[in-house]
Amino acid sequence: MAHEIPLAGHLGEQKTKQRIKYSFFWPSLKRDVKTYCEACKPCQLRRTVTYRDGISIQPIVRPNNPFEVWSVDCIGPLEPRSRRGHEYIVCAIDLCSRWVEAIPQPRILLQKLPAKC
Fold first, then answer.
1. In this structure, what DSSP letter does residue 91 have?
2. Predicted TM-score of the model (pTM)
3. Contact 95, 101 (CB under 8 A)
4. How far is CA 94 from CA 16, 52, 64, 98, 104, in A?
5. Which residue among 1, 33, 40, 115 has its CA within the 20 to 30 Å range from the CA of 87?
6. How many whole angstroms separate alpha carbon 14 and alpha carbon 3?
7. Domain Integrase zinc-binding, which positions (predicted)?
């Protein structure tokens, strides 16, 4: 009742536990609320999950000269295709000026590129 009624709002383990503790207590309260919330389908569908991948974030050093260093990525496949048959977009950003180029492409041919050109 402290978790599922419309006014309760599926607020998660901590807030549900606090709400119950205002009026009730039993020895396994913490464990029971945790088990209940972990089995609650709406909570599992809405919860945010944080992953730690172990890779530290490195700052991107902005170059001093425009058009010297570019960041390039590909978006797609896009649905539906454009009238001209383009299904992908190649995006390139100049890291100094932040100039953006977006070029539609009908297909992408993948090949292994060196880490530094």
1. E
2. 0.45
3. no
4. 49, 30, 11, 5, 18
5. 115
6. 11
7. 2-48
